[in-house]
Amino acid sequence: MTVSVDVKKWATSVVVVFATILSYSLVTSSYTAVFKTPLTSLALASATLMFAYFVSSVRLMIIHSRYTGTRLGVSEYYKARLVGNLVGFLTPSAVGGEIGRAGYLSSKGFPFTDMVAVSYYEVFFDVVFCNVMGIVFSVYQFPWTLPVLLVASFTLATWVAISAVLLYAGGRQISNSRAIPGWRGLGERVLLLAANIARAFKSVSRRVGVVDLVYIVLLTSVSQVLQAASLLAIMGVYAARGLVASMRAYFYSQSLSSIPTPGGAVTSEYGLSLVVDPETVVSFRLVYALVNIVPGLIIMLKAYTGKRGRV
Hints:
This protein is mainly α and 311 residues long. The chain contains twelve helices and no strands. The protein has helices at 2-27, 33-36, 39-68, 74-89, 97-106, 112-137, 146-170, 186-207, 210-235, 240-256, 267-273, 278-310. The two termini are 19 Å apart.
């Protein structure tokens, strides 16, 4: 029953994303964009995004191996990244991305709550980088970028605050929830789960060394710049000004994706359209949606059919 409900929710999210792209293309008369954009450009944009995700999977490998003392093959971290991308893309504000990666890694024999902490720690660097860049670039087109500035500032402050709370709580012994009226049953389990995640998050932060942090920040920067640069293939402008424009458009879009819509529907289109033309918006959103949906879906289907085959 749970699986069927999830499938329905995901199907609804997919419909919302593509319906938004279609509506935008009709309103802006850019519905022929995907046919005008050369296939080589669409393929190059897709390949750039996939390579960017591979770079971020190396970052996940560093964090996971430091915490667990075990290193899986890099392909396993890549699969975890792609599954997380799928779940994150189909959930409002990408809140399911960490759960998707944690779920895949826990299928390899690691505790789920620990993997949630690892995934949260990893994505923290993306959140900080994207929103700081969104705030910096929002100066270019103020006041049109006021929504970017507000959302990015709120998201950044929220994630920093939550991380600080996790670090604080992870270093303390949580009191028994039975002493708190109304915390029996489900509330007690939720409190215990939160305490376990906080302890794991604190442990991750302790085990990741200074040298590791340097690599993590570098890999985060490379991955995010590559994702922004994937727009260049569709824009067809490979000069420095093209890279700056693609970064502005991408980070506007990513900052606004914190607004709870499936796959950043509506908000991403707005962020991109502040910089690039409607045709580029439509082509990029289609590429971005497919690259985030198809690989992760294939991995999950293979895992599902593999389990059924062993039954």
